[in-house]
Specification:
The protein is of the alpha/beta class and 396 residues long. It has helices at residues 4-9, 15-30, 49-59, 76-90, 104-116, 132-139, 158-164, 187-204, 229-232, 265-278, 286-293, 303-318, 341-348, 375-391, and strands at residues 36-37, 99-102, 122-127, 143-148, 169-175, 209-213, 236-241, 254-258, 322-323, 331-335, 353-354, 356-357, 366-370. The protein is built from 14 helices and 13 strands. It has a seven-stranded mixed sheet with strand order 2-8-7-6-5-3-4, with helices on both faces. The longest helix is centred in the middle third of the chain and has 18 residues, at 187-204.
Amino acid sequence: MFNEKIVASLSKSSMIRAMFEEGARLKKLYGEENVYDFSLGNPEIEPPKEVLDSLKGYVNSNEPNLHKYMNNAGFPDVREKVAKYMTKKTGVELTQNNIIMVCGAAAGLNVVLKSLLNPGEEVIVLAPFFVEYLSYIDNAGGTPVIVNTAKDTFLIDEVAVEKAITDKTKAIILNSPNNPTGVIYSRENLEKLREVLERKEKELGTNIFIISDEPYTSLVYDGAEVPEVLSIFPKSISINSFSKSLALPGERIGYIAASSRIPDVETLISVMVTLNRTLGFVNAPSLFQKVVADNLETAVGIDNYRKKRDILYNHLTGIGFKCVKPQGTFYLFMKSPIEDDKEFCKTATKYNLLLVPGSGFGCPGYVRIAFCTDMTVIENSLQAFTKLAGEYGLCG
């Protein structure tokens, strides 16, 4: 009676949400303070003061047309500010005509994929990956092609990517800093990928686009560099949101920046603007367009996240778990001591630890730990992690 494809998918619903719901059950049983929920990437911090002050200013202003419809791409003055910011940041000359304001990165990804893909065309997804990418590609009529990143480092395996490219390959999704690993793809890594794309495009007579999902570029530790994708790949589209950088996940606000070096980029922009409307988004929230445009250089403080990362990483590796130290994001991607990551997560709930199986990110044998939670949860969880490690003989 309903959409059969979606009904069938319900049994495979998001593991992240499943663990979140298990957390709610455990908190009822044992009390919230006794459950260590690392399941959801929902920032616990509040937006920066500058953002709240800007919001108050607009709410109390008499600025005309602030709450009305505007061009489906967003307010022209907002897009101009974003264009200048991105031009300065990437070195690629952009104007407001290269920018579309969207309802967060999820909306941006759906708009971009729907704009690029014809039925059956392929999108390469690098594992581990944010699980919703597969749904977004399917929504656009495309076919996901999953390519594993390099073992242990999670950097791009350009040889594996080259083998996966066919005459149907239309795009590759990059996510750096990466959810769930926290790894940043190095400049050298990305330049090798560019060489692969140039070679395959010439061989196949095709165009392959880079879709860069960039919500974590402000959450970077230890002075790590996040290379600018727009500056490296001519046919690139950057999608960003302010969910993580300004702690505004519930406001659903972000932007698409299409490189001016894309052939016939004007047509692509026109298609994306049309889809922003016809996919039902219409336009990004008007009030928050103005707020984020005033705060493009603002970001949440990362010292708090860095301390949490260090406490967890040092403790987990100290008791025998294996994990790549994240360069960005607020996630740790820890290797499961057993092959069955789902079973390991189930065992972890015995100690009221809520972790997400790596299988949900296309990388079985690992678990994701979201440390964007209160410091007391981090500190109180350490003993539980030690007991979990002991169950697998990791503590000596």
